Amino acid sequence: QVQLQESGPGLVKPSQTLSLTCTVSGGSITTNYYYWSWIRQPPGKGLEWMGVLAYSGSTYYSPSLESRTSISRDTSKNQFTLQLSSVTPEDTAVYYCAGGINWYDYWGQGTQVTVSS
Q1: Across all residues in the chain, what is the average pLDDT?
Q2: What is the model's pLDDT at position 2?
Q3: Beta bridge partners of 41
């Protein structure tokens, strides 16, 4: 069974870069046709898709976040990482990683990130 686990700081200061890592177990992030996403949910709002890392290493981002978002991978550790730059309090949210052949087959439990000075 594929399992995902988010990790990273729970508090980030405004203007800094948020960095979260998703560690995948029970499967490889390079498995053909598997895609790995970052999704967030601000308080009181719905889910927002941020971007995706394909099995090939290609990345695609939400147009509204593209200028501030980067997703990378470490295949030796079977991890993929989200970086969101120039954060503001509006970036406060629960951040999820998800993945699978249907993009959202497997989810992490989510991690709360608060942007505050």
Answers
A1: 97
A2: 97
A3: 94
